[in-house]
Amino acid sequence: MHSAQLSKRPWLLILTLTLLTFVLGTSEFVIVGILTDISSSLQITNAKAGTLVSAFAITFAIATPLVMSATGHFPKRKWILFLIGSFIFLNALCVISTSYIMFLALRILTAIVTGVLISLAMIVASETMPIEKRGIAISFVFGGFTLANVVGVPIGIVIAERYGWNATFILTTILGGLAFLAAYSVLPNKLSQVRSSIRDQFSLLTSPRILMAFFIPALGFGATYTVFTYLVPILNGMDAPENSISLILFGYGFISIFSNILAGKIASHNAIGRLRFVFLIQAAVLITLFWTTNHFILGLINIGFMSLMAILLTTSTQLYLIDLAEIYQPKATGLAASLMPVASNVGIAFGSALGGFVYHQGILMNVAWVGGLVAVCASLLTFISYLLDQKQKSSA
């Protein structure tokens, strides 16, 4: 890739931050694959075990901006190392957890640590790289999540099947230890520190431009998850052989690695201008599922394109939120960096709820139309943002 212009040290930093997001992503996502093991072991219903997932997402969304605002002035290197240490400790406690309440409390605390670490990884990646390399750096850091879904989660599930769900948290604890060692040796000492009040930070959230930029990724993720949440019933409706579904889901995750690489390319130049059309293509890809799923091979190809479009927005919107904060509230770039992960969680919750509502109306494949319309809304917001940016540039 662009390694010719970046020396060894920045690449080591990027790879360390990517390892960190891989570890955090594995710990966050693996729970879905081992829920039934947890529910039978802790003697709770599957529905009650499901609250472990929703409690994590809700805590992540609410706590991340609050903690980022309150800790913006902390020395970043020490704070990151402390948080990774906390992550290791919480995952180690999950190994010996024997009650639902204890496990729920540990997951809630892990969600806070995860949200803040992800935001800090994004800030470090964007402020330590030359401007033209920020897109590549951020897309690598986001790539850690993609790899967590494709590699980390399946390994965690296999370990749970062999040795019990507690053993999965031995894995995440060990991975956390590796991330700590890498961060300790690579993180620079001189990282920005901004002294600002919580009022300064939260004034960012009253800016209409920031709110608009927040809803772009929320709608983008919402569009995908309106359909993706019900991918297994869709595949069943396409008469996919029972034993092929996990392979298809693996393929979906594998394709998203390329989506991540493309996200860095899109962000490298005129990102918001390009995203206007990315969302329109995404809308077309989702809507055509309504017809292509009548044919197994065509449906699979279309689902592959859906995966390719799914995370093209991440890097561009992450950098856009940080850049807008530098214009409207320079003291709140830490809070701005936390908004993209929060927006993605909001979008996932909104999309899966919307998909569920449509599904229960009776015709499953109507989720394709609805997901497509959500993507059109994301495109409209991006068009408006782009026009306002152009207006600002010409008046400046």
Write up what this structure looks like.
It is a single chain. By secondary structure, the chain is mainly alpha-helical. It has two domains: 8-193, Growth Hormone, Chain: A; 200-395, MFS general substrate transporter like domains (Growth Hormone, Chain: A), CATH 1.20.1250.20. Helix content is 82%, strand content 0%. The protein contains 16 helices and no strands. Helix 1 packs antiparallel against helix 5 (100-128) and helix 4 packs antiparallel against helix 7. The longest helix is centred in the middle third of the chain and has 30 residues, at 134-163. The chain is globular and about 55 Å long. It starts with 7 loop residues before the first helix and ends with a helix.
